[in-house]
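Dear colleague,

Following up on Tuesday's group meeting, I ran the structure prediction for the two-component complex that the binding team flagged. I've pasted the input sequences exactly as they went in, so you can double-check that nothing got truncated or mislabelled along the way. The structure tokens for the whole assembly follow below. Feel free to forward this to whoever is handling the docking comparison.

Inputs:
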Amino acid sequence: MKSEVIDREDVRTIKLSGKITIGAGDVTMRELIHAAIDDGKKKILIDLGDVKAVDSSGIGELVAAYTTVAKNGGRLALVHLSPKINDILQVTQLVTVFDIFDDEASALASFS
Amino acid sequence: MPDTKPVNAAISITSRFENIELAERVVHDLMVSAGIGEEEIAPVIRALWEGIANAIRHGNGGDPDRRVEIEATVSPALVRVTITDQGAGFDVAAVPDPTAAENLLKPSGRGIFIMRQLMDRVEFSNLSGGGTVLLLERRLGTTQEREHHEV
């Protein structure tokens, strides 16, 4: 998995690409979330637009990211979900947990 | 006329997550050789991934000296995969529903649920001498009728 971090004012966008799967991307994502918290970020947007595959461990890491950010008084949102990732969040009922946006502008606006 | 004889393959891997891709390639290529299209291969590969990840992490406890055996058989109507670990076995009935409100924010416990969304048959059996066999089956030629009902 590859990642790119973009700070716009107080929102940190983490753009992920590749696979978020067991033994690889899941650990990387955890490190990125902890780095954001260590940097004092409370508004975090995860861009999944270039993510090709997510397994149950990757979904678990998204949940862990959500709870970690929330416990630190912040908010986490997701943007650019592929139909496959959207489907998996639907069947696992996680669409009721995450704030999900189709486009970056709407997601960023939600933080203001 | 397409060949209707089942084809099969087997691979044995050590308990390392990077080895899942080796098994993925074997089963993918087997299904391609049987004339199965990518749309029908994709859900099988996703379930296979979850099954092997479970076998490595929970079955074999991540012990790289323990192996996971994968066998796949593909016929025009059905794909069947077995994944055997060398762990102590477990009670699948004790696995909580990850979609229950109290479990939604748990970071794990969705692998078996996802396999059940993707496959027609997901069964675990504990071997008397130790180890667990996971049986995965999916009927083939059914993509259109499933289109809106699976992950």
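Chain B has a mean pLDDT of 92.

Cheers,
M.
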